[in-house]
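Postdoc handover notes: sequence design on the structure in folder B. Input tokens:
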């Protein structure tokens, strides 16, 4: 079932990050509705920072790996979307590869990760970003193009975020994502959600509650969010587990003591379809 069909049924879409075929199989065998292909985790899994360093061909390869093993809808993190002239090409390629929704953020290229406390977050000119959305929509067949607002990340207020949202919807965006690194009560995010849903009750609204993760999916849905993305947790879990395993293996000088804490080879066989 596609993202837009789940939303039409009045249900929230709950997405979990995957960064390769194996992590996609974990999501495929879970109750999550969709897969989020994050630029952060795609970059980190290749040992690189999240600064739009990964080529689009490499990112397309990740999409194809994931689509090969999963039937669930894919939401693709498209960073800034590149140049206006380039974006339509990638929209077409991503749709061919099986992506259901593309989210691009209204920051200037090259972006820095939104959760980087020391980065300068410069917003793209509204007209330029609007042209990018329109150019992508001109070639999109069924794929959704969602505008990600970075106003709160750049320390602007909800009224500026709302103004930019209106412009991007006028340009043809199929939905809006409001992003924030606020961690206490996420007041600005919820204020925006209230304002937005009062004016556009039928337009999909997306959140990524990485920093305000005390709120449940149900609570976020009740506040107006149609798509809720858990954006980087499988990679973060695997990074910690790999670091701890490497440390213990070196300290113990044998692997026997790890047996109860790591997956068996048979478990790998099973999830990859090597054995039934």
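Designed sequence:
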């Amino acid at each position: 079932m596609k993202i837009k069909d789940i939303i039409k049924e009045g249900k929230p879409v709950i997405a979990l990050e995957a960064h390769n075929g194996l992590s996609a199989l974990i999501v495929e065998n879970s109750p999550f509705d969709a897969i989020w292909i994050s630029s952060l985790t795609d970059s980190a899994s290749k040992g690189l920072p999240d600064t739009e360093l990964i080529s689009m061909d490499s990112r397309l390869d990740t999409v194809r790996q994931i689509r090969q093993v999963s039937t669930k809808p894919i939401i693709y993190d498209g960073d800034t979307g590149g140049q206006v002239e380039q974006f339509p090409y990638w929209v077409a390629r991503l749709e061919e590869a099986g992506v259901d929704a593309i989210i691009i953020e209204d920051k200037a290229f090259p972006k820095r990760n939104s959760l980087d406390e020391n980065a300068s977050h410069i917003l793209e000119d509204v007209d330029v970003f609007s042209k990018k959305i329109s150019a992508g929509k001109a070639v999109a067949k069924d794929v959704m193009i969602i505008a990600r607002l970075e106003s709160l990340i750049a320390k602007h207020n909800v009224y500026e975020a709302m103004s930019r949202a209106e412009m991007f919807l006028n340009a043809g965006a199929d939905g809006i994502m409001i992003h924030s690194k606020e961690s206490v009560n996420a007041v600005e995010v919820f204020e925006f959600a209230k304002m937005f849903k009062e004016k556009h009750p039928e337009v999909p609204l997306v959140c990524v509650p990485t920093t305000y993760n005390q709120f449940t999916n149900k609570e976020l849905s009740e506040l107006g969010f149609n798509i809720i993305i858990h954006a980087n947790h499988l990679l973060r879990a695997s990074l910690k587990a790999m670091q701890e395993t490497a440390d213990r293996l070196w300290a113990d000088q044998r692997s026997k003591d790890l047996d109860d804490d790591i997956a068996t080879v048979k478990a790998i066989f099973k999830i990859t379809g090597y054995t039934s």
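Context for whoever picks this up: The two ends are 26 Å apart (CA to CA). Don't rerun without checking with the PI first.
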